[in-house]
Design goal:
12 helices; alpha+beta; 10 strands
Amino acid sequence: MAGKTLMKSAKSALSRLQCAKSTVTQMRSFTSRLNEQQQAIQELARNFANEQLKPNASKLDLEGRFPFDHIKNLTHLGLMGAAVDEEYGGRGLDYLSLAVAVEELSRGCASTGMIMCLHNFLYANLVNEKGTPEQKEIFLRDFTKGAIGCFALSEPDAGSDVASIKTTATPDGDYWILNGKKSWLSSAIEGSAVAVFATFDPSLRHKGLACFLVPMDAEGVFRGKKEPLMGVRAVTACDMTLEEVRIPRSYMVGKAGEGFKIAMEQLDQARIGVAAHAVGIAQAALDTAMSYAKEREAFGKNLTRLPSVKDRLTDMCIMIEMARLLTYRAATDVCTKHSSMAKYVAGKNAAAVADHCVQILGGRGLSTNYDAERHYRDARGTQIYGGVTDIQKRLVGHFLLKEHEAL
């Protein structure tokens, strides 16, 4: 009798354990394995990068020339609207597919990868997910066919402190009138429209913000000169001034007061993209270092056989895989904590990997005749645009404590 009771108890415990395992499996459903569609996108982007981007990346960087032909070809591949609904000319892909494409393109040319990344994550996805049918017809359909969209959040005195935005939006009948100055608009010189964040009541701080879609050719929109950049030099960045810009009320995204929420949600997406961008740059740096180390000889042997070089290459590999896994996680389970963690680690690791690359090449690592110094410059920016690493660390800490009810 005791034996039967023990058996029933054991079976019951086993059943509970199996249920618990099932629950844990469902909760931790993340996998780093790409599905067939994601693998196909990865291969498509990798082949394009190898054939068209990598051979021209150095020249574009040295000349600081916008890659019009590359963007045109990416449009033909459907990657300039990768996550946009097919109804509006997009591919309807998930964020992980888009992130994988950004990584591969950035591995070939960091500038081209960044342009594609920001157009998708900050502009196209915003209009696709939050725009009205009318807004999508005007501000989305053409933006999967070659037109480039921009994102105007930062200002001369408002970067990380978004609530301090001074660009104003004043209601005037069926219109809004925008006045102010925006900074660091990527692709604005080539862009056709921009998502502008402005305040309709400064006293409300972040609760007084709204988001507007503005045609770049609207009267009163003035774009500044191209800003010389340390890295991703083929990307154009400039200021934009808005002087009595009159736009229809229907061009507001969401409602008045939702601007801050919209901006933060898009930045959560953008950080996934910038993290993937950083991983691509880091992978390119490892490729460069490995190719050089396999051919260069010192002390009668290849550099790969020297313990110090082997250690550096190993560290580079580990840092890249760490960043890639965090990026994949962020792309499959989008939230501020995950995207900030991915960007924080990917940006810092990309800079460290690129530094190792320069060190392995030695004197050649400082020469513009080799790719190492370009990777080094490109990697540094990934700790700044899309949200500086300092803020990302604070965000991760905030949500960590919030999860544990420790705020």
